[in-house]
Hints:
A: mainly alpha, globular, B: alpha+beta, about 25% strand
Amino acid sequence: MEKEEIVNKLTPVFRKVFADNSLVITEELSALDVENWDSLSHMLLIAEVENEFAIKFKLKDLNKMANVGDMIAIISSKL
Amino acid sequence: MSEYLIRKAVASDIPFLADVVIASEKAMSDRLSFTTLFNKTEEEAKELIIQMFEEEVDGCELSLSSFIVTEFEGKPISGSGAWIEGFKGNMPSGILKSNLISYTFGKESIGYLKTKSNIVKDVMIEREPMTLQLEYFHIKNEHLGKGLDAALMDKIEENALAQYPELKKVQCQIFKNSVFSIKILLRHGFKIVKSYKSDNDDIFDYLPFNEKLLMEKILKTD
């Protein structure tokens, strides 16, 4: 799956989890940039992303995800 | 005090640390968020807490490296967790803990959490980078009142300052009903700096109390 296709699938997931319909997904985006991205919403985000792509992250994958770019790279490696 | 040995936690302490987490999380109530928010029994939650410790992720409240224990006659009788938030480029501890829970508890539990997240969000407090975060502090009842709390607090601060001499403050998030723990913190120089309260009474079905305090102790000023 191409990076652009992954971003297109991630966008509605992020907008739903963080309740922000104008949220724009960039590779640099991280928890520091999104007001509602806290420990609680992070768990919901991980579950929704796993569901969307039918994948299961390893713990070491999760702990490497400093921003959306890292998440895209890990998703890409699993598809 | 000479009968007590305060030391860093090791892997064989993990089952005891799971009990420390459970006792601390309940905060003088019968409600354990690892069960109420994730639809698990206490037995299941304990096993999952053990698994999270065994992953040995550093930099959060479920990190083995965050804990010191006290031994009495060769057995652990207290456990205390503390870490420097975001130290050495670590991710925020809340994210590390969420990763551990997401990985360990599984989709069904996270799905259950989703239905309850609105109830608990008002008492969630962000952690300040490069501060010492104190979380989980438990001493077995029969060893209370012997000055161990002060010795542990001193040791926690001493360890943190050895790692990071520029450390300026210690913070602790604590439910308001934890009156004895609050007294210990006040006695040790902490002050209440902010209160976070939920008006949703349903919170009492899931968490120990509807109000959480942010307590802080200044170690150094600029």
